[in-house]
Structure formats: structure tokens, C-alpha cells
Model the fold of this input.
Amino acid sequence: MAQIDTWYDILNVLVSYEKIKETELRDIVRVSLPTLKKELTLLKGQLESVLKINKINDYYLLEIIDYTAFESIMNGELKQETDFNSVKKRVAYILKRLIDTNDYLLIDDLAQELETSRGTVTRDLKEIKKVIEKFGVSISGTPNKGLKIEGNEFDIRLLYLHHVYDYYPSNYFIPNISSYMTTYSLENNIPTNSVNTWKKVLEITLMRIHQQHQLNKPIPHYTNYQWHDESFDQLIYQIESLYEMTLSQYDIDFISFPLNISNTGAVEKVYMNEPFIREIFDQMMQHVSNLMSVEFDEEELYTEMRFHLLYLLNRLIFRIDNYDYFYGELEKKYPFAYEVAKVAMEKIEEIIGRQSSEAEISYLAVYFELMMKKNRPQDKKIAIVCNTGKGTANLMKQQINQVLGSHIKLETYTEIEYQEIDLSNYFAVFTTIPLKNIDDKIPLIRITNLFNDEWLHSEWRRVNKMNQLQFEHVDFSFTHMKKASTYHKQLSQMIEVLRDKKQVDAQFEERIIERENKQTTVFGNGIAFPHALNKGNNRIVFHLGVLGNKCSSDEEIRFIFMVGIPQEMTKKVEAELLQLYDNMLRITSDKEKSKELYELNSSEEFYDWLWKEVV
Done:
């Protein structure tokens, strides 16, 4: 029943937000407004004794009445109540029957058990094959015998966890163990969702061992951070005593994994597979270096990121999706950091053999953005031009610091003094008088009401936007690309334009093509990002190629960002480069703005348009 999935989507969002606008909730859940209102009404009616969903001034707020019942619902209880009209319920039933039996199953028998037609079961099996393919599991069919599921025990357990258990929980669990697990979780700060998964995993493990299916080999790439933990060993001892069994190390590893997917800070004191994490990090950063023209202090980044990486790897191994608290907003706000994270994740996926979610890319992007932010010049100097004396100037400094923060460096000048100063070195200029011969690119704030905090914040936001486009060290070019048969020919056309302008050195094309041959910089969102060192030029060369046709590539290329990078960059130049990437990625991801780009005809038009769009 798709309705249950929608209900869980709604609840997950309401749990994550203190309050959320109706239109935002609609966009996140991806239903129409009438459908959202209908589902909210049904959901409130179904769970009226458990929760309330209040609407105040176009905002929805969740109020929980019965926390115990709510926890059970969030742990999948509603799925158990669905009937066989739900495709997912039928899929879960068929998978359960195939996994539980050691023999073949006939389609006709499954149809009879589900009280549906053979055709419906056949269609469900097609859906099942799509699901199990991701797990490396298959269903074989033998004439006159029926169907049988095939795969290694590890993948079958994960399949059961993700697609069967919530609909058909097993009955092997012992309350005494549940109590011990709860105590352990509280002592070790294990999140509630991980505890719920842990209990499911233990039930599945006990059930499979009871059916004579044990894990008989190590879990690839997995590190058990509960290894040699006394309280966890005690839990394993209790399980073995109650069930009169001996668990293999591989089964113990499997039971432990829900404790090893969230950063609780416990790993340092237990065990960490440092060499493996470092190897993953180094390969990831090499891949980023091959594709992206950005440099990081890798030792500092590794120190910040390593614990996130070790839990990320375990989540990928066990196909656990991290909940997306950003809901796509991080990609919009920090597009370049998100692109770097996508490239980094490509290498991790390749090594681990798993596909990540957008949420995992977003969380990884946070680390890249924070590191890039550290590398940007942080000091913001402001000039104050005032002709009413030092007392007034000091009062202005005090008010600006109070509203905008004490981290801002303020310098005051008289009406005469400012004319001897290069004001382009300042982040912004506050003035009580009209200023003569000032470059219109200098962010200017004419003081009209200094004690209106709202006005001051508004002007400060405007100045920040203007500074986002202070590209003092960038030479822009813009070209409508001619039709070409291949991507490499498109690149040659663009380089020819730069060569005619004497903006790139003689070997620039060779370096671009060499890099592309080693690893293409065509991204999946229709943007290509060819870049290389540009010797003999201390300025950034940025050439935007707009394509109106396809060339022979895996996907349609809409825009080519070609960048010539100086061999040596100051922090200010590097900050301009990163800001340029952010702005261009943000603009080209907007359909309406992308259309406007196609209407431009020259580099001058492009720069003027870019200034208008950002400011």
C-alpha cells in the first residue's frame, strides 16, 4: 500500500522539523497539495490516540501523545497491518516463503496462499527480481519444481532485514535479552533507531541459525568496533546460554553491526581499523584530485573526517540509509562542496561495491565545505567614512560591531583621508556622505538609519552577495559551441578561443586532453568540468561553453566549465575560484536561469548577467 509509505514519509519529516511549512512538506514528500491534505487527515484519524498533527499559520507541528506507541509505529508497526492489496506486502510474503523454505515453491501455491491470481504473482516476481538484484541474490526456476532463492547467507539476511522483517517480524526474541540490550544501549549512547535495528538483526540471526544457516566467512570490508568490549561479550554470552548455542565470530560480527553505524564517540576507546580507513581516504582524495581543481590540507581533513568515514563504510556495507535531515538543501546551498563529495563517493562506492544515497553525499559534503571555508580569507575589513567627528565614528563602530559581530575589523576615515586610500581592499564601505570616483564594484552602504537593526542586516546581506562576485583574478570567456561530433572536439574548439586571446600556454590543450583521457570530468548533471594548470598566467581563466547539441558522451552535456588554473594561488585567488564554482553550479542547476544563459552572446553579456544574478 503506497499510502503507508507516504504516511512514513510525512512522519519522518515531522519528526525532523520542529515545524514545517505546508508547501515545503508537500515538496519533500513529493505529492500534490490536495493529496497531502487528504493523507494528513487519514493519518491523524488512524493515530489519534498516539499523536496530533497541528497546523498553525501554515506550519505543521507534530505533538506526540503516546511515546511508546509512537516508537513502535516508527519501527514499522503500520506495515504489519497492511493486507495483500499492497504490492510491498505481497513481495515481502513471497521473499519470506522463499527464504524460509529449503525446497522449491510453485507459483500456483504462492497464488493460492496470497489469494490472488497467477498473473499477479508473476508480476510481483518481476518486481522482486529488481529488488534482489541489488543484493546479489537471484531466483532460479526449474520446470515442474518451481522457484528457489539463491545467494550467500550475508546478502540473504540483509534482504530479509530491509524487505521482509517490518511486514513479518519473527518470534525468536527473548524479553530478558531485550532488557539487557536496552541497558547496553543507554550506557553506550546508541541511538534509538540503531537499537531498533539491532533487535531486528538479532531476531533474524537467531531465526537463520535455527534454520541451519550460519555465516561461514568474514563480512567484506567490515570492522566490528565492539570487538573485545566486555559488556558486549557479556551479551553474547547470555544469548549463547539462553539458546544453548555457540555463535561463530562471523555471526557475532553480523549481530554487532547496528552498533557500528552511528558516531557515538565510543570507537576511540575500543578499536579502529586505521590503516583501512586511511587507504580508503587516500584513494578517495586521489580521485578528487584527478577530477576537481581544488586542494585540501589532507592531514587536517582526514583528522576531521576519519570517524565519519568508518561509520559511513559500515552503513554502506549493510545498506543502511542515513536519514536525510538536509532534504536536498545542502546541494543548493553548497553546490561545489556537494560535487566534490559526489566525486569522493564514487571511489568509495567502487571500493566497497555499494551504492550510496543522496543523504550520505550531503553529510560528506559538510566536511569538504567546512574545510574550504577554513581556507577562505575570514577577516572582513570595513571602512567607515564619516565627516561628523570621532565621537560619531566611534558610535558607528560600536553599533556595527553590536549588530554584525565583533569579528569584523573597522577602520574610520575622514572626508579627506578616504581619497588617499584604496577602498577596494575593504569588504564594504559605510559612509555618511556621497563618495567621489568610487568603482561601482566596491560594496557601498550609505548610512541613513544606523540604529535600525533590520535595515543594517538587510544592507549587510546585500554586501555579502556583492562580495560573492568580486572576481578580481578571473578572466571570463563565453562561447556558444558549434556542433561537434565528440566531446574532445568541443574542448579543442574552446581552447582555440583561449589560445587566440593568448590566455593559455601552448601545452594547455595537451594537459586538458591527458586529464580527460585518464578520467573524464563529465558529471551526471549535464556539466563538464575540464581543468588543468595554465603555466605563465597568474590569473584564473574561466571559459563557459554553452551547448545546444549532443556530442558522443554517455549523457547530454549542457555546459562546459573550462578552467585554466594558475600554478600558484594565494588564498584570495583560491577563494575566488571556489566561489565561482559555487555560483555557476547553483545557476546551471536552475532551469529558468539555464535558459537565460542560452540567450547570451558574448563574454561581456555573460559577466553582466552573472553579476545581476548573484547580486
Q: What stands out?
A: The mean pLDDT is 85. The longest strand covers residues 474-480. The two ends are 47 Å apart (CA to CA). Residues 87-163 form a domain with the Arc Repressor Mutant, subunit A fold (CATH 1.10.10.10).
